[in-house]
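Propose amino acids for all 254 sites.
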């Protein structure tokens, strides 16, 4: 099959859809015959798949295999710029048969924005971009969850405390004084139930909150303080390690 035929076929097998959600906008439970890659260019989306809740902050997206029933809600107080890339079952077979969280790099976001810009005016270039976008999805680093949850009777109330923004200035050790559990036992439970170190889980919870505060217009120094950092520079380094850009760069983008 020649390249032109390949491009036409790909154009029929990958679709890009763009949405803008207000705070607390919801899409009720549904499923699609195609696979869905859902991610946010700006804002945080929460998806429910079965009994599990998944978060998709910027730089992370959720791959849903074909016929995966799900619902979603925009949990950011500002407008959420949401992208859904639908993938035909034939191409979806080359991706995971399970729901996964994929890392989306700034380059990927740039590709998608350009594809949306030219999809009607430059069809041939658009089809080439679809190939690169699909390849990027296939090659993306992946996790089972970004911020996994659990119903474990011991771990669940601890996670509720660790993710409560009112306690972000407190260390994990201090929060544990309220619970009858050793730090070593907590580490074992975290690996068993979350597949993550408890410190990494809490860092991700802080990142989700930091993005929300940033969009609300709070000063970077104030956000750093609310998240428990003594110096803004430490917070900026922390933020960039997770999202690949500084808080000021993210604010400038949006």
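Proposal:
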């Amino acid at each position: 099959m020649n390249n032109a035929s390949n491009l036409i076929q790909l154009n029929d097998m990958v679709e890009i859809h763009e949405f803008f959600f207000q705070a607390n906008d919801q899409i009720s439970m549904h499923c699609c015959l195609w696979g869905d890659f859902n991610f946010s260019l700006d804002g945080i989306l929460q998806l429910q798949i079965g009994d599990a809740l998944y978060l998709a902050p910027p730089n992370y997206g959720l791959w849903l295999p074909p016929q995966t029933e799900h619902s979603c809600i925009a949990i950011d107080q500002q407008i959420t710029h949401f992208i859904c890339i639908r993938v035909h079952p034939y191409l979806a077979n080359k991706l995971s048969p399970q729901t996964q969280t994929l890392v989306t790099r700034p380059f990927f976001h740039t590709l998608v924005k350009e594809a949306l810009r030219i999809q009607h005016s430059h069809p041939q270039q658009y089809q080439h971009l679809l190939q690169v976008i699909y390849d990027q999805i296939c090659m993306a680093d992946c996790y089972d969850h970004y911020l996994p949850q659990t119903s474990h009777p011991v771990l669940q109330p601890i996670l509720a405390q660790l993710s409560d923004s009112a306690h972000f200035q407190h260390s994990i050790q201090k929060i544990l004084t309220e619970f009858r559990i050793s730090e070593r036992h907590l580490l074992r439970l975290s690996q068993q139930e979350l597949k993550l170190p408890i410190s990494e889980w809490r860092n991700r919870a802080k990142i989700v909150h930091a993005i929300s505060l940033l969009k609300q217009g709070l000063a970077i120094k104030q956000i750093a303080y609310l998240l428990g950092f003594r110096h803004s520079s430490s917070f900026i380094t922390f933020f960039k390690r997770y999202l690949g850009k500084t808080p000021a760069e993210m604010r400038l983008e949006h």
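The radius of gyration is 20 Å. Residues 198-215 form the longest helix (18 residues).
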